Amino acid sequence: METGARIRTLLAAALLLPGLCSADLRAQQAPPRTVTFKDGSSLTYARPGFWRTIGAGPADFGLFIKESFNKESLPWLAAIGASTLFLIEYDQKIYNNAQKAGRKLGISKVDKTRTYLKAGGVSLFRGPSDLGSALYFLGDGWVNLGLVGYFEARGWLKDDWRAAQTGHQLAEGLLVTGFTTQLLKRATGRETPRGATAPRGVWRMFPSFAEFQARRTRYDAFPSGHLATGMMTVTVIAENYPEKKYVRPLGYTLLGALSFQMVNNGVHWASDYPLGLAVGYAIGKAIAAGGRTAAKRTGPAGPSAVKFAPYLGREGEPGAMLAFKF
User: Fold this and answer.
1) Distance between CA 172 and CA 308 in Å, rounded?
2) What region, left, alpha or beta, does residue 208 occupy, with left being phi > 0 and alpha being psi -120 to 50 degrees?
């Protein structure tokens, strides 16, 4: 891993605030806490444990796969496939029209995100400098890490188990979503619009690891990791805070703005979106469901040989590595 990526990963870990590890060191579980809403429904949370939640990543990934390919999911899978094929047919026209609309609205098609914080010549934090980069920044890993930090801080300062669990789940979701989308990108190998060598881009399936890393714009369009991560984030928050009715409408509106800008600046085709959104939604539901059933467990999850390790890519996007302990 390059030096800059290492530093960003360490900074991401530092955002997870003091006290996260200490919660996992408590071997004894306190009685679960229940949050009851006006309509009589409720959610129950066990004592939050950060590393216990992260350790559930492989299990929640398995739940995501299981729930995505059962009999009830077949109509949704068909809809995702059909909408993807339909959009592929019109990808080039959508891309051209999005850039025309961007010019009329004064939205730059060039990402003008700039570095605001450096250390030793290495970029530690990037941020937007105009409307176009602000729209694109909605899908940046720093926004998601900021939400993780907010919920972790609220949980720690207010002893709010729901907030802490939400923060833990978002951190887990970044890893599971990053891992899943990377698998799909490396399997499909689709060109991005700005790297396209033919209309609608060329698909070069299963490029080598070195080739993918060296020429990412030739291979990493499908599906959209930005939208998958954004949808996962909205879903996890909405599932844990069902009384906050504005979460989904606001989140979906922001994802719509991000979707436009990613086509406008040539990062994605419109057909990269259906699968990305579906992956993010399904992972968010699986992780939230796992968190709600945690109170039924008899004790903390034991050590697992399979672990997720986080990283941030060259453009600040979150990702995950899968490690196996021998």
Assistant:
1) 9
2) beta
CA 25-173-321 angle, to 5 degrees, is 85
Residue with tokens 């992260």: 54
User: What string of DSSP letters covers 197-219?
Assistant: SSTT--B--S--HHHHHH-GGGT
DSSP state of 192: P
Instruction: Answer yes or no: are the C-beta atoms of 261 and 145 closer than 8 Å.
Output: no
- Measured CA to CA, the distance from residue 259 to residue 219 in angstroms comes to 19
Q: What is the pLDDT along the chain (326 residues), one digit of tens a residue?
A: 443 444 444 444 444 444 444 444 443 457 888 888 888 888 988 888 888 788 888 888 888 888 888 888 899 999 999 999 999 999 999 999 999 999 999 999 888 888 888 877 777 777 888 898 889 888 878 889 899 999 999 999 999 999 999 999 999 999 999 999 999 999 999 999 999 999 999 999 999 999 998 988 899 999 999 999 999 999 999 999 999 999 999 999 999 999 999 999 999 999 999 999 999 999 999 999 877 654 443 333 333 444 444 455 544 444 555 444 44
Separation between Cα atoms, residue 127 and residue 123, nearest integer Å: 11
Establish how many alpha carbons lie within 13 A of residue 212's alpha carbon, considering only the half-sphere containing its beta carbon. 20
Range list of β-strands (E), the chain: 33-36, 42-45, 114-119, 122-127, 306-312, 318-324
- CA–centroid distance for 310 within its chain: 12
Name the token pair of 65. Answer: 């796969």
Cα–Cα distance, 281 to 251 (Å, whole number): 12
Tokens of 248: 């989904």
Q: At what angle do helices 225-240 and 141-158 cross, to 10 degrees?
A: 20
Domains detected in the chain: 50-301 (1.20.144)
Considering the entire predicted model, what is its pTM? 0.81
166/238 Cα distance (integer angstroms): 10
| Rounded-to-integer distance, Cα 88 and Cα 104, Å | 25
CA–CA gap between residue 203 and residue 196 (Å, rounded):
10
